[in-house]
Amino acid sequence: MKDVNLSVTLGPIKLKNPVMTASGTFGYGREFADLVPLEELGAVVVKGISLKPRPGNPPPRIVEACAGLINSVGLENPGVEVFVKDKLPYLQKRNVPVVVNIFGESVEEYAEVASILDDQPGVIALEINISCPNVEAGGMVFGSNSSTAGRVVEAVKRTTSKPIITKLSPQVTSIAEIAQAVEQAGSDIVACINTIPAMAVDIYTRTPRLGNVIGGLSGPAIKPIALKCVFDVVQAVDIPVIGIGGIATAEDALEFLLVGAKAVQVGSVNLTNPRASIEILEGIRNFLIEQGISNVEDYIGTLKVLSHGEN
Amino acid sequence: MKDVNLSVTLGPIKLKNPVMTASGTFGYGREFADLVPLEELGAVVVKGISLKPRPGNPPPRIVEACAGLINSVGLENPGVEVFVKDKLPYLQKRNVPVVVNIFGESVEEYAEVASILDDQPGVIALEINISCPNVEAGGMVFGSNSSTAGRVVEAVKRTTSKPIITKLSPQVTSIAEIAQAVEQAGSDIVACINTIPAMAVDIYTRTPRLGNVIGGLSGPAIKPIALKCVFDVVQAVDIPVIGIGGIATAEDALEFLLVGAKAVQVGSVNLTNPRASIEILEGIRNFLIEQGISNVEDYIGTLKVLSHGEN
Amino acid sequence: MKKHQEEAVILDNIPIIGQDTYRLILQAPMIAREARPGQFVMVRVDKSYDPFLRRPFSFFRIDKEEGIIEIGYKVVGRGTTLLSQKKRGQTVDLLGPLGNGFRLPPEDTSDIWVIAGGVGITALIPCLEDLRIKRPKAKRVLFYGVKTASELIPSSFFKSLCHEVLYSTDDGTMGFRGVITECIDYHVQKGEKLPSVIYACGPLIMLKHIARWALAHSIPGQFCLESIMGCGLGACLGCAVPGNIRHGNSEKGYVHVCFEGPVFPVENIRWDEL
Amino acid sequence: MKKHQEEAVILDNIPIIGQDTYRLILQAPMIAREARPGQFVMVRVDKSYDPFLRRPFSFFRIDKEEGIIEIGYKVVGRGTTLLSQKKRGQTVDLLGPLGNGFRLPPEDTSDIWVIAGGVGITALIPCLEDLRIKRPKAKRVLFYGVKTASELIPSSFFKSLCHEVLYSTDDGTMGFRGVITECIDYHVQKGEKLPSVIYACGPLIMLKHIARWALAHSIPGQFCLESIMGCGLGACLGCAVPGNIRHGNSEKGYVHVCFEGPVFPVENIRWDEL
Ligand SMILES: Cc1cc2nc3c(=O)[nH]c(=O)nc-3n(C[C@H](O)[C@H](O)[C@H](O)COP(=O)(O)OP(=O)(O)OC[C@H]3O[C@@H](n4cnc5c(N)ncnc54)[C@H](O)[C@@H]3O)c2cc1C
Ligand SMILES: Cc1cc2nc3c(=O)[nH]c(=O)nc-3n(C[C@H](O)[C@H](O)[C@H](O)COP(=O)(O)OP(=O)(O)OC[C@H]3O[C@@H](n4cnc5c(N)ncnc54)[C@H](O)[C@@H]3O)c2cc1C
Ligand SMILES: Cc1cc2nc3c(=O)[nH]c(=O)nc-3n(C[C@H](O)[C@H](O)[C@H](O)COP(=O)(O)O)c2cc1C
Ligand SMILES: Cc1cc2nc3c(=O)[nH]c(=O)nc-3n(C[C@H](O)[C@H](O)[C@H](O)COP(=O)(O)O)c2cc1C
Ligand code: FES
Ligand code: FES
Question: Which pTM was predicted?
Fold first, then answer.
């Protein structure tokens, strides 16, 4: 066998391979251009974009954890207008498939960002980050509740013709339930997981290690949790699922594909190894060749599970 | 300063120091007796006990993860009668303060186990594990819902005069809400966290790595998540909180005390370093001496937090 | 028998076969004093928490007078790779001795077969030594199978401990050509007298075959099993395998390799479920 | 300027001061070719994911012809401890060059003060070298403060690069007794002419004092800042510090040490919020 077919179809979108980068860990793509051949990736998911520019959280914004990091960057971004004018053109010119991660403080804000991006070429999908505080509803996160999550998706759906990926937070009682709600609301694809709420403190100064006190844990430490979330969601919905969380090697990525993710996003490891995404892509190819599998879709979701009970 | 006062008062119970062992990682105490001076610990929390003997889950029951492990032991235990007859006497004879971790498949079963243990000397508290499937309610975990969690606590409260610790699962939308529910229901103390649902698979055999498919993640990897849970719960309730999750060093334990845990439980690291609990106790003592703090309670909950916003 | 956590000094750590099977010689007087053949130690391969769990290894040699123990290990993954990089003079953190060890056969036992597959030989060497001393009248035959001759550990380690050695290699480069179970069949068919008892250690697939054969012929056997281990102390219940022992726990029982084993009477394991 | 990820061979890794400040000499031709004083590299101290993040270090020496770079680092925690254990001949994974580097002062600059606290000296040495070559007519004075004389890096590294060196030590074991800001005050009070520009690198507390002083006297300054770094590439936005640059983002701006810095004009940082 000479080569394998790595292309995957996720509902309305087709990717040349299942490896994307995760929002917030790969900037606007250009930052990695010296190191990674961007056009070879399945897609680049850019840092979260809101209607208005946002300064982000006070420093320190990052603290290292065991096999990962906690961040409280706080969604710093230049706003959708500056994004379209200054950031997006580079990726469009290079023909890199772009997924724009969007968020808002209200349902309307989500919808408005989406509508502004609707006519942008090269943007193959919008990824809705619902792990954001709903300012109207007292700061509860949109994604922590089936009904608010659904409402965001419906509103975005109305204002855009682009395929919608809804990105779920793991900090819920049942991620499967939220996934079903956003499927119902019209999401084309679902992605999980976002970072897990976490914290670090300094026992000497007796202060939090993050300016924002609370942050989100990511990196290899969370992989087993993310894999379980993806497994649950794959079982619960009919729309395609993108796996995210602690993926650092091709083997990790293959684990997510095995439980049924149609594609993966490579996140925090980009900080440790900026070439991780492309190395993972190579590793997946080599594994499939070695295993005599000519089509990556033949591997996806082939986990043999008899039954399972309590933990 | 010659020595420090390490004793802590958790509502109705007083511990000679804040270091206990976590259920399921320290057997019935005796297994560690060659290595750890059991009577020096704040308390030994024994493996979960149910009304009837239970075989536990099929192997493999353990798989290593990045900085931790996933287990699906599945609550194997000899049942409360054999426990009282064969396991407990050893700890009673040695005057080791014992906390018995209990669980059931129904509210009644919890209550019955509790009533059997009610007259046992040396048992300073019962720890209710509510991360168990509620067989009557279709297998949903008791602890995933304020009302079922509350019902278990109320039922146990009615059948025992022992202080009650309720141990919370992190896999909920708001752990603070569950904590408030069990406080309302009469729990004297709350402990968090239990393991986090997780999974591992083998990309070559395409099978789960655990006999039970799903397991629970524990160990240093989960510490930042556990710390955030404890921080949230401390803010939400007035009863004392016990911190659990990834504690491997004295510094880790002190972090939990700093955010407001009145005591800690040392879990998975007992497998890596069987003397961890006693070394952590020593480390806390040395830290307090070094910092000129004569009373551990003067350190507990002294984290300086101004305000915090979104993640 | 007291368990110890001991920081052991590495006296040597060198390959004994090819590049991937090592012999680790350790100064560990507390553990050596209590150790018995068939028992094991849990080794912390790194000070960090990655890898998180200790790794179990059987005793390959126990020298109580000198306070020395040895293990023989094959490099198969992350932990054993880290172990193989340790140098003489460094220390490793050991926990042991753990498990039950081999029991001796009845005094009047006449024929003992010791069946070793691959690196399983290492656990059986101190067993053979014990049998030689304590059952001197029994005939000890060693069946020893590996993939290819270059994987055999040097016969100097065991030749003097038994009356006969029957080698088998998958590729025929030494002794019988075929797997060890075929080698046994062959000798039985040739009319070799069946043993009074067998001791076995090796890959699961080999143990299963031999167990079935032993059960069919009602030959008592002691089998040394492996399982993923958490604590090694009987506390975490992570090392369970399907077993026939009913120890108050339940109908469908599990036995625990770290404290009811690692050596089990053949009839105590539900081999088909393994 | 292209960024490279380069597996660099360690030519040497030896203490230059006492036991805790090291000099790491690396064969890294791709990075050396592009590097400028004030820029930095992100070093992956271990192949594992613990520690997870790379560690940033300024260039201490850049030899474009030989393709060699050096960093000088102080052992302060886990990552730098691991780094200090690496041996000649091993390799480390580098990412660089990163950040903006020091800018040259105007052609007609007459007096330059270079102010170094502790290990901050290492970033300023290539800066001094650049100034000597490109602004040869300016007078270069180095203020160099440490806790005690034994923490000074040998003067052979910088003596020839400046016209004057003013040492200060907290305990008076070398030069002025007191902290570096007091040393500066002392010289100013003695009537020393104020500089046209300052370059500073050192502990935050020192930078804050000097910034306040420089702003009060309207002396332009370039300050090399530190921050916890995620990517070093401008992608994660983790390295933000309160700044006065308004780059479209917001009212209350943050600047990013890894790409808008690490060298900032003194007026661009909100020092009081640091
Ligand atoms: C009681 C007992 C005695 C043993 N004695 C020896 C011996 O004398 N010589 C020898 O070479 N090997 C022995 N083993 C096997 C040895 O423990 C494993 O080969 C070793 O743990 C693999 O570690 P690793 O990190 O290199 O491999 P990994 O990369 O972790 O995994 C490689 C393989 O080893 C298995 N494994 C990993 N961790 C464990 C664990 N904690 N327990 C059991 N299996 C595991 C995995 O399932 C996998 O198949 C024994 C095992 C047991 C249970
Ligand atoms: C642009 C820049 C250039 C630097 N140049 C030098 C140099 O030339 N020589 C030198 O000795 N040091 C330099 N530092 C500081 C150096 O990066 C830290 O000392 C090092 O990262 C500490 O790592 P550690 O694992 O040993 O310490 P840790 O155990 O991680 O922590 C010890 C201390 O170092 C700080 N620290 C940890 N990680 C980072 C990080 N990623 N970025 C910044 N600070 C961190 C922590 O806040 C803590 O106070 C520079 C920092 C920056 C941002
Ligand atoms: C520094 C940082 C910034 C992030 N910013 C965003 C963001 O803007 N929007 C979003 O949906 N997720 C964001 N994430 C979450 C990641 O996209 C990803 O879901 C998460 O980190 C888990 O994957 P990982 O473990 O591979 O990093 C961010 C993560 C990190 C580490
Ligand atoms: C092998 C194993 C068995 C456990 N058994 C129980 C149990 O029976 N009851 C219970 O409430 N928690 C049980 N736990 C959870 C621990 O008590 C603890 O809450 C969890 O492991 C997190 O702490 P750690 O990260 O320090 O291990 C078990 C954990 C492990 C690793
Ligand atoms: S390994 Fe823990 S009980 Fe056997
Ligand atoms: S470290 Fe990532 S943007 Fe500066």
Answer: 0.96
